């Protein structure tokens, strides 16, 4: 087993403090409000995926999941908080209407 000694403050300091390449890889830091809205979007998406399990027809279930994913992907780049809130509100309302239809089947 070999042991390598790194010069003081080289690789380990970069790892501990974070290098510029790790910052670009992770993307920009989110504001608290963006973080909260992102959490709400993920929660809605998960809720939709879980709720689609109640759809009996496998083809309809797959189509519903595909549509939901496409809508979330299509709006992935939205950064305006008011628009994000609007999309979440609209998406939640549309899904609630769809759930009433699913439960009625």
TrEMBL record:
Keyword Transit peptide included in the entry's annotation: yes
Domain Complex 1 LYR protein: from-to ranges: 40-96
Zinc found in the keyword field: no
Subcellular location: Mitochondrion
Annotated CDD domains: Complex1_LYR_LYRM2
Function text: Involved in efficient integration of the N-module into mitochondrial respiratory chain complex I.
UniProt keywords, alphabetically: Mitochondrion, Transit peptide
A Pfam family it matches: Complex1_LYR
Main location: mitochondrion
InterPro entries attached to this UniProt entry: Complex1_LYR_dom, Complex1_LYR_LYRM2
Superkingdom, taxonomy of origin: Eukaryota
Protein name: LYR motif-containing protein 2
Family membership: Belongs to the complex I LYR family.
